[in-house]
Amino acid sequence: DAMKVFKWCLVTIGLAYAGNYIGNIISMIINGDDVANNQQALETIFDTNFAIPMIFIVVFIGPIVEELVFRKSIHDVLRSYKLSNGMIIFISSLLFGLIHVVNGGDYMFIFPYLLMGVVLGGLEMKSKNIYPCIFVHIFINALASIINIIMSNFEELLPVA
After folding, report:
1. CA quadruple 98, 20, 41, 30: dihedral sign
2. How many Å apart are CA 101 and CA 159, to the nearest integer?
3. In the predicted model, what is the mean pLDDT of the chain?
4. Cβ-contact 62, 141 below 8 angstroms
5. How many other CB atoms sit within 10 Å of the CB of residue 32?
6. pTM, 2 dp
7. Greater confidence, 36 or 126?
8. Long-range Cβ contacts of 24-29 (<8 Å, 24+ apart)
């Protein structure tokens, strides 16, 4: 039922933002006010001539590829081993979190990504379909990119103290 899946998508978006907020608090408690290398890299690229292609990659290509890998392929492989849904979500979420922090070596920033993986994994289990996960992931990355761009431009308008 399409309406039921749409409601699950809305709940997932809410849970993803709540998880992101909680994950960021955990990371800030552990790391202080530092920002993850992944986030710093995006902010830097958004301020270059490569901003438009990078936004396209972050908003569309990244979510599609990540959902096909983490919520489709990995879930399917782990299902073939007859693991519980909880274990499948945990393993795929852990891998999803690690892929976002391993390059920068800032493993303590894993919590927002880990929690996002959990809610997207739950959506895949509930809907039994990858497309709602792709839609939600694109929506979340698009909103985060818009906020990032607005905030970086807003900071330029503020007077320096």
Report:
1. negative
2. 34
3. 90
4. yes
5. 7
6. 0.88
7. 126
8. 24/111, 24/112, 26/111, 27/108, 27/109, 27/110, 27/111, 27/112
